[in-house]
Write a structure and sequence with these properties.
Length: 391
């Protein structure tokens, strides 16, 4: 009897892909498609075959922007059947507010009031569509919400317009009793030269200014933060600390490059390890969504290998994170470098006049403190040994 693969996709991980990911025909800014387009129900069949938990979509990934009502009904019928046949869920939906020429200068931040109104209308309809399929997370990525020249848009007014749109859509969701949680996705640039609310930290600050901040969180993406040269693990930690990690986009990216959307863990394996460890240690229970694309050179069979690879790498790193947490040598070093002193910690945990007076009078031997060993090189190498499979 064949042994079960310990790194096969686990339904508890809620691995999802977008229709736009495995359905990507391989087009790029310099080249035409290299793979035949496949229909949404065929994508569902593919994801069912590789063992995914669910599939997410932009409104127009599923239904063309120019579809008639009868065409839309037929597409939804076929897609619903494919979901049922493959046991797939739709945890998240979003709106395409960047592809159509009407959004050439933005959607919620357009200088044209009618374009802004159309963008909100389109999002409302996208929310209706997502709710039909049971989505409870709605992602907002402002791909065109930016500028190339600050002469063209007032950035303060642009943020204000975004706030007004989000407040309106929060109210719409509540009026329809959709139960959505909104997740805002940051990106520093591309396709615009500069995009407003460029990183996750910007989004966390922006959320606090909304009328209903409790229903709005973030959807950070590996590639987007790496494009800005940031440590993605730290961005996710900030979202977790704020209670705002509603969704996450997993992929990989070389620092300083265009948005590459590589297979998860295929470039920065050490970063991927610590990301998986953070998500698992924090007991994150949302979808683990792969917003990634197979290489342009891949055929449809290789796209399946890409999808399996994203999930397999996560499962392998999850096992390694568990091993890191129980490795005696590693944990001994962790204990050594984290010098807990209950009495001192009590003084600084909360301000009181008594604590301030005691802290004022405490004598610290700074030279002794400076001599305390911090074997970070040893700890990091043990981590590398574990990741590379020799420990």
């Amino acid at each position: 009897m064949a042994r079960k693969d310990p790194f096969a996709p686990d339904p508890k991980m809620r691995f999802t892909f977008g229709l736009w990911t495995v359905g990507n025909p391989g087009r790029d800014p310099f080249g035409e498609p290299v793979r035949d387009r496949i229909e949404p129900w065929q994508i569902a069949d593919l994801l069912g075959e590789v063992g995914a938990y669910g599939v997410n979509f932009h409104d127009n990934d599923l239904i063309s922007i120019d579809a008639t009502p009868n065409q839309a009904a037929d597409i939804k019928r076929q897609f619903r059947k494919a979901l049922r046949d493959n046991g797939l869920k739709v945890p998240m939906a979003t709106t395409n507010l960047f592809s159509d020429p009407v959004f050439k200068d933005g959607a919620f931040t357009s200088n044209d009031a009618k374009v802004r109104a159309y963008a909100i209308q389109k999002t409302m309809r996208g929310m209706d569509l997502g709710a039909e399929f049971g989505a409870k997370i709605y992602v907002f990525w402002g791909g065109r919400e930016g500028s190339e020249s600050d002469a063209t848009k007032d950035p303060v007014e642009s943020i204000k317009r975004t706030r007004e749109a989000m407040n309106f859509l929060c109210e719409y969701s509540m009026s329809q009793k959709y139960g959505y949680r909104f997740a805002l996705e940051a990106k520093p640039n591309e396709p615009r030269g500069h995009i407003f609310n460029a990183v996750t930290g910007n989004m966390l600050a922006f959320i606090a200014t909304l009328d209903h901040p409790g229903m709005v969180g973030v959807n950070p993406e590996v590639a987007h933060e790496h494009m800005a040269g940031l440590n993605f693990v730290h961005q996710v930690a900030a979202a977790l600390d704020a209670g705002k990690l509603f969704h996450i986009d997993l992929n990989d990216q070389e620092f300083g490059r265009y948005d590459q959307d590589f297979r998860f863990g295929s470039v920065n394996l050490k970063h991927a390890f610590f990301l998986v460890k953070l998500l698992e240690d924090s007991r994150y229970n949302g979808s683990r969504h792969f917003d990634a694309h197979a290489y342009r050179q891949s055929n449809h069979a290789d796209v399946k290998a890409f999808a399996r690879g994203c999930m397999r790498t996560y499962m392998i790193l999850k096992e390694k994170a568990e091993r890191w947490n129980r490795d005696r040598s590693i944990q001994s070093l962790v204990h050594q470098i984290n010098r807990h002193d209950r009495a001192t910690a009590t003084l600084t945990r909360n301000f009181t006049k008594t604590n301030a007076r005691k802290l004022h009078s405490t004598v610290f031997d700074r030279r002794k403190l400076a001599r305390q060993p911090l074997p970070y090189e040893k700890l990091d190498q043990l981590t590398m040994d574990l990741i590379m499979g020799v420990r």
